[in-house]
Amino acid sequence: MIDSMTLFFTTDFVLYALAAGISLSLVAGPLGSFIVWRRMSYFGDTLAHSALLGIALGLITDSNPQLSIIISCLLFAFILTLLDRRPSLSTDALLGILAHSSLALGIVVLALADSVRVDLEAYLFGALLTIGNVDLIWILLVSTVVAIVLYWFWNDFVSITVHAEIAEIEGANVKRLNLILVLLIALTIAVSMKIVGVLLITSLLIIPPAAARSLASTPEQMAVKASLVGSVSVVLGLISAFYFDVPVGPSIVVVATLIFLLFYFYPGVLKNKS
User: Fold this and answer.
1) Averaged pLDDT in 10-residue chunks for the chain of 274 residues
2) What are the pLDDT digits (tens) for 54-67?
3) Domain segments of the chain: what residues?
4) What secondary structure does DSSP assign to the chain, as a single string?
5) Cβ contacts of residue 263 below 8 Å, gap of 6+?
6) 55 and 255 in contact (C-beta within 8 Å)?
7) From the centroid of its chain, how far is CA 263?
8) Burial of 154 per CB tally in 10 Å (0-12, 13-18, 19+)
9) Nearest in space to 34 (alpha carbons), one of 201, 167, 220
10) What is the reported pLDDT for 162?
11) Of 3.30.110.10, 3.30.565.10, 1.10.3470.10, 3.40.50.11750, which CATH number belongs to 2-265?
12) What is the pLDDT of residues 197-235, one digit of tens each?
């Protein structure tokens, strides 16, 4: 068993999967912390569902699927930001309409394109072990860009999250900062599809920060610990998928959920050792 496990973790496709999963976990931790603080989990679901429409459009136009997913997510993020400023409809109702309509539209477009054959299960639940050179380059590139922007605007993002009115009085452009943060979330979701898929993608952004919340006393601590929880979930999820012969994406989510439950019910499990 040890020899087979060693062989598993030294093969190229597993190394690609580890590199992709961990690099995304490192930026998903800080971004997910803002999602948890701002109670934006449904917002992330809506962007994830819109990604399927990007897949469909990319396939029927014979363009780069990853690029079409990114464009679709960014476009929907921008539209959601604009619509959210109109008080005529509640935010949760608006998100619910867009989430389900974009998902349904993506499936209908794929069904109408008879010449296109696509494994929907891979996009719905992830296919981490199928990541190739091009996918890895996209993930590393986007993760690097998101990390740089997060580092540059970190204090501003925290300020508008804690108290937007005070931040605006102090000179912060709240609308612009909110748009940047939303676009970062959209970018991360767009390149995360190969890892956990459309239906599970938001869990990568929510569960690790939720698990780290009880262990942190500052925003920075929560962001760092959320990244660590996400990275551990990726590694243990890969091991679990190999050992139990189950899909990788759902395994990562299950591991992250177990870590969350451990810290939720036993918040002092690590504090007592530190």
Assistant:
1) 54 81 91 88 76 77 78 84 70 76 79 64 72 85 94 93 83 87 88 74 87 89 94 91 85 92 78 51
2) 877 777 777 777 78
3) 2-265
4) -HHHHHHHTTSHHHHHHHHHHHHHHHHHHHHHHHHHHHT-HHHHHHHHHHHHHHHHHHHHTT--HHHHHHHHHHHHHHHHHHHHT-TTS-HHHHHHHHHHHHHHHHHHHHHH-TT----HHHHHH--GGG--HHHHHHHHHHHHHHHHHHHHHHHHHHHHHH-HHHHHHTT--HHHHHHHHHHHHHHHHHHHHHHH-TTTHHHHHHHHHHHHGGG-SSHHHHHHHHHHHHHHHHHHHHHHHHHHT--HHHHHHHHHHHHHHHHHH-TTTTTTT-
5) 211, 212, 214, 215, 269, 270
6) no
7) 21
8) middle
9) 220
10) 85
11) 1.10.3470.10
12) 776 777 888 999 999 988 888 999 999 999 999 999 999
Residue with tokens 């995304």, as numbered in its chain = 24
